[in-house]
UniProtKB/TrEMBL annotation:
EC number: 4.1.3.39
InterPro entries linked to this entry: 2-IPM_HCS-like (IPR050073), 4OH_2_O-val_aldolase (IPR017629), Aldolase_TIM (IPR013785), DmpG_comm (IPR012425), DRE_TIM_HOA (IPR035685), PYR_CT (IPR000891)
Organism: Candidatus Kentrum sp. FM
Protein name: 4-hydroxy-2-oxovalerate aldolase
NCBIfam families per UniProt: 4OH_2_O_val_ald, PRK08195.1
GO process terms (BP): L-leucine biosynthetic process
Domain Pyruvate carboxyltransferase: 4-256
Family designation: Belongs to the 4-hydroxy-2-oxovalerate aldolase family.
Gene Ontology MF term list: 2-isopropylmalate synthase activity; 4-hydroxy-2-oxovalerate aldolase activity; metal ion binding
Entry keyword annotation includes Lyase: yes
Record keywords, A-Z: Aromatic hydrocarbons catabolism, Lyase, Manganese, Metal-binding
Keyword Plastid carried by entry: no
Length: 335
């Protein structure tokens, strides 16, 4: 497991946990602390779904993407600045060009795992700009290993320098990781990454299995801070890796100090595996659906379990938050 790249997504995925209300001081303080640790990339956005996602539909962020990128860029001296967005939420002439102007180092272009075609324009633009760019295949549990390889090869053909498989629903078990990550590693000539969610309490384990299967890039967050049940806990991941003899270059004590800063400022409660997190995973739903499902259940006086089940039956994917309200209304009318 040499050349392991650790991508800290606390300041992007973590926004889900606080309804996208991180302050500029939160961004700056955490980035300054983590810059001393030796993590490779800190990924930043004002909204948990990435740049350009702030909206009434998916939730309004407290600050603009430009503001948070700029303040973190100023805070980082040794760590690369990263971004992630979906084509459509982020546009070429707005979010992508703005990110280039603000000095982002690593770009990740995200899409549903069966729709890599829509990333072509953005990836090719970033390649022409001379930037480090990769693909981010969301909801990857929805496709088999052959289809994932097909989509990853498309991204490689557009110029992607790495591809990350995203367990958006937190539903992967170790054998899923071995099968899918291992297949991409075997047949791709660029680094493969893995982004875990913790709905089944498997995030750290699955991240380690991904590395054992040949992955080179792992996403993690402080205290697992992220959507739903959270992500791979960064401090646990690093401690385990060092116990195994890897990433001794990272300062674990400084990392633990940075985590304390985060807990003092914006991580008021560590993510937990709630009933909603389990139902999200069991129904193969985007981990960030938990909060809007609970709100809809309360607003329309229906059972949240029924909403989760119906969304699973309808194959809901990220970006379809309006469908949650539609299902809640249908359940209320049929009662």
């Amino acid at each position: 497991m040499k050349e392991i790249i650790i991508n800290d997504v606390t300041l992007r995925d973590g926004c889900h946990a606080v309804r996208h209300r991180l302050t500029l001081d939160d961004f700056q303080s955490y980035a300054e602390a983590m810059d001393k640790v030796g993590v490779d990339v800190i990924e930043v956005a004002a909204h948990g779904n990435g740049l350009g996602a702030s909206s009434i539909h998916m939730g309004k962020s407290l600050h603009t993407d430009r503001e948070v990128l700029r303040i973190v860029r100023q805070a980082l001296k040794r760590t690369k600045l990263g971004m992630m967005t979906f084509p459509g939420l982020g546009t070429l002439n707005r979010e992508f060009k703005m990110s280039v102007d603000e000095g982002v180092d690593v770009f990740r272009v995200c899409t549903l795992c069966t729709e890599a075609d829509i990333t072509r324009q953005c990836i090719e633009f970033l390649v022409r700009e001379g930037k480090e760019v990769g693909g981010f295949l969301g909801m990857s549990h929805l496709a088999d290993k052959e289809r994932l390889l097909e989509e990853a090869k498309k991204m490689r053909g557009y110029g992607a320098q790495f591809v990350v498989l995203v367990d958006s629903a937190g539903v992967y078990l170790p054998h899923d990781v071995r099968k899918k990550v291992g297949h991409l590693v075997e047949f791709m000539d660029i680094p493969i990454g893995f982004h875990a969610h913790n709905n089944f309490s498997m995030a750290v384990t699955n991240s380690l299995v991904a590395l054992e299967s040949g992955a080179k890039i792992i996403d993690a967050t402080a205290c697992g801070f992220g959507a739903g049940a959270g992500n791979t806990a960064l401090e646990v991941l690093v401690a385990v890796l060092q116990k195994m003899g890897h990433r001794k270059d990272m300062d674990l004590y400084t990392l633990l100090d940075a985590v304390k800063i985060a807990k003092g400022k914006f991580i008021k409660n560590n993510p937990i595996i709630s009933e909603e997190s389990l139902l999200t995973a069991m129904n193969g739903l985007f981990s960030a659906f938990s909060r809007p499902v609970l709100r809809a259940a309360e607003e329309f006086d229906v059972n949240s379990r029924d909403i989760f089940n119906r969304l699973g039956e309808r194959g809901a994917i990220f970006g379809e938050e309006d469908l949650i309200l539609e299902v809640a209304v249908e359940l209320k009318e049929k009662r």
